[in-house]
Design a protein that fits this description.
Blueprint (H helix, E strand, L loop, with lengths): L9 H12 L5 H7 L5 H5 L2 E2 L7 E2 L16 H36 L10 H10 L9 H17 L13 H10 L6 H11 L8 H31 L5 E5 L9 E6 L3 H10 L3 H9 L5 E6 H11 L3 E3 L4 H5 L6 E4 L8 H5 L5 E4 L10 E2 L7 H15 L15 E5 L6 H5 L8 H8 L5 E5 L11 H12 L2 E5 L1 H9 L7 H5 L2 H10 L4 E3 L6 H14 L11 E5 L5 H12 L3 E4 L9 H15 L2 E4 L3 H18 L16
Parallel strand pairs: 4-5, 4-7, 5-6, 7-8, 8-9, 11-12, 11-14, 12-13, 14-15, 15-16
Antiparallel strand pairs: 1-2, 3-10
Helix pairs in contact: 4-6, 4-8, 4-9, 4-23, 5-6, 5-9, 6-9, 8-9, 9-22, 9-23, 10-12, 10-15, 18-25
The structure holds FE(4)-NI(1)-S(5) cluster (NFS).
């Protein structure tokens, strides 16, 4: 049964111990049973694209070096990676499409359960699409914006317009490289075409298409998801909340939302405050309803409603291990099928909602945006009805939870850094130019059982802020940082370098800024664009003293993100390498040569502190190229030249 997780937060340790004592199989057990994992798969050199195979390349050079068709390790590894990018881009972008459909519905139907909450944002997006706003009804504008966004997925000619919001120099570079995305779906389809048997065999050419699809994700599908979510659900503003399993209550109906799309979770967040439902919960003997979230949908409703985070990806089963979850409702992505057997050990009802994501034997209440409130009510009523089935003897809720501040956006965050008088990136740029800040880093992404529990995230983030590097975070890294108290302003005094501390003290922000869910990495792209536009730090994103990292990545979505970040010109660090180490040429291309093309590159480093140092070295290299002033305060990490 699951080993002891030394680095884990106390709540997780307690639940993992419980699972082990009660012989309930969870993710770490399944991970153990899977060892040793397939070496060919890890190295990216097995191919099952056609039925002459499956083929595998001998990594030691003694056995076969090409598959039955003649594809070598470079072609096979590149094709496998490209297909991961296609999977990840498809997931983010389909989410974006769903939000666009919901906006269209809201625009057309005045009785719709969704309303336009941020008109200013809607008009800003209308401007990107050259949609007239003056003297027009808001619903008319919304309709045109939704249609323009939907057009981004399947247009036959042209370019993804949302991507034209990147810095001009970047767009020119993308066009020159032939990687400016045309339409979001088209780039995903073209990956599938090119990587089918007997099409593209040039590994660099395959990766180029991978980058094109990834850009269609980051600067297209994900950005549409973020922007239109702000329009429909409201742009987030910094707020306080809590994180970790201790947010569940012994005396309330506990409902967990898990997955990604706010079309479901946002409505549940609103309906969960309905007086009639709360009264119904009381009739069943509960004191009320507690709603909490897992994974990125948690980040969405945290930022907009202050709903607490129950936990990260690795805590989905652990939440059930409390015996206090009356219902867990899931939509799409990062939902482990293993949840169903854990749910069966307790009274917990697991409910799937998306026609795209069912689990055999699990209750399905299909969610339709047309009946959003009705279905959300039905889901919450199911939870309330299940409350009396809770066995109090089986309830064990860990006490631990942490305070946090979340809800920064590209627009709001630097209202803070800009001070009281005007929203501007100037003070941020100046802080970097004068050496108060070394630079900025985005640390994002999943947690993975192939790491000591979330150690990769925490050690890296602490090392970065210690060295005066402002960290922005999204996804499960954000949840992990929250659990470890890094999203509190006080964290600056405990962990940050002197320069970063001064900034945090002056403007009252934490040293690690929560910018949302994984699709909200598009907010980070906007932040980078705004820093370039503010001036003084070069002409392009690739000039900036910044770096990105997903230390414990696991999802294909993380691969897509990494590729759009590299294509955007950013040094990108991950822990375990991409599954392509069986191809020396591809490795050299992605970690070295690609920098000459996009200005960004990949780096792999398992030790999180060493990984942070490599990021800092890169940041220093960029500072040097920009001839910035030396750092104002002594730095804990000084790279040796
Ligand atoms: Ni991102 Fe969100 Fe978490 Fe990883 Fe999954 S929840 S979209 S993929 S595991 S950060």
């Amino acid at each position: 049964m699951a080993k002891e997780l030394k680095y884990a937060d106390k709540a997780s340790q307690e639940m993992v111990k419980r699972a082990s004592e009660e012989n309930i199989e969870i993710v770490w057990d399944r991970y153990e049973t899977m060892q040793p994992q397939c070496g060919f798969g890890s190295l990216g050199i097995c191919c099952k694209i056609c039925n002459m195979g499956p083929c595998r390349i001998d990594p030691f050079g003694e056995g076969p070096q090409v598959g039955v068709c003649g594809a070598n390790a470079d072609t096979i590894a590149a094709r496998n990676i490209a297909r991961m990018i296609a999977g990840g881009s498809a997931a983010h972008s389909d989410h974006g499409r769903d939000i666009a459909h919901t906006l269209l519905m809201a625009a057309k139907d005045p009785n719709c359960d969704y309303k336009i909450k941020d008109e200013e944002k809607l008009k800003a997006i209308a401007a990107i699409y050259n949609i007239k706003t003056e003297g027009r009804e808001i619903n008319e504008i919304a309709k045109d914006v939704a249609l323009a966004a939907l057009e981004e997925f399947g247009r036959s000619e042209g370019e993804v317009k949302m991507a034209s919001t990147a810095p001009k120099t970047r767009i020119k570079l993308w066009r020159g490289l032939g990687i400016m995305p045309r339409a979001i779906d088209r780039e995903v389809v073209e990956i599938m075409h090119r990587t089918t048997m007997g099409v593209d065999a040039d590994y660099k050419n395959i990766i180029k298409q991978g980058m094109r699809a990834a850009l269609g994700d980051g600067w297209g599908g994900s950005m549409i998801a973020t922007e239109l979510s702000d329009v429909l659900f409201g742009s987030p503003n910094p707020l306080r909340s809590k994180a970790n399993l201790g947010v569940l209550q012994e005396d309330t109906v506990n409902v967990i939302v898990h997955g990604h799309e706010p079309t479901l979770s946002d409505i549940i967040a609103i309906v969960s405050r309905d007086e009639k439902l709360i009264a119904k919960a009381k009739e069943k003997g509960a004191k009320g309803i507690t709603l909490a979230g897992i994974c990125c949908t948690a980040n969405e409703i945290l930022m907009r409603h202050g709903i607490p985070l129950a936990g990260s990806f690795l805590q989905q089963e652990l939440a059930m291990m409390t015996g206090a979850v009356d219902l867990m409702v899931v939509d799409v992505q990062c939902v482990m099928p293993g949840l169903s057997s854990v749910a069966n050990c307790f009274h917990t009802k697991l409910v799937t909602t998306s026609p795209k994501a069912k689990i055999l034997g699990v209750d399905h209440i299909e969610f339709r945006e047309e009946d959003a409130v009705k279905i959300a009510t039905q889901i919450l009523e199911t939870a309330i009805d299940n409350f009396p089935n809770r066995n109090s003897k089986k309830v064990q809720i860990p006490k631990d939870s942490e305070q946090l501040i979340a809800g920064f956006t590209a627009e709001s965050v630097f209202n803070f850094l800009g001070g009281k008088y005007r929203a501007t990136y100037r003070p941020l740029n100046d802080a970097i130019i004068t050496g108060r800040l070394r630079g900025a880093a985005a640390v994002i992404g999943c947690s993975n059982p192939n790491f000591e529990y979330e150690e990769g995230h925490i050690k890296m983030v602490k090392e970065l802020i210690k060295n005066d590097t402002l960290v922005v975070t999204t996804g499960c890294n954000a949840v992990t940082c929250a659990k470890h108290g890094l999203l509190k302003p006080e964290a600056a005094f405990e962990y940050a370098g002197k320069g970063l501390q001064e900034i945090c003290r002056t403007v009252g922000i934490p040293p690690v800024l929560h910018l949302g869910s994984c699709v909200d990495n598009s907010r980070i792209l906007r932040v980078l664009t705004n820093i370039v536009a503010e001036g003084g730090l070069g002409d392009d994103i690739s000039d900036l003293p910044v770096a990105g990292a997903a230390p414990e990545w696991m999802s294909e979505k993380a691969v897509a993100i990494g590729f759009y970040v590299v294509a955007t010109g950013v040094y990108t660090m991950i822990g375990h390498p991409l599954p392509m180490m069986g191809s020396k040429n591809l490795y050299k291309y992605l970690t070295e040569e690609i920098e000459k093309e996009t200005g960004g590159k990949w780096a792999f480093e398992l030790d999180p502190v060493e990984a942070a140092h490599k990021m800092l070295k890169h940041i220093d290299k960029k500072r040097k190229a920009l001839k910035l002033k030396p750092m104002m305060y002594e730095q804990a990490f000084k790279p040796q030249e």
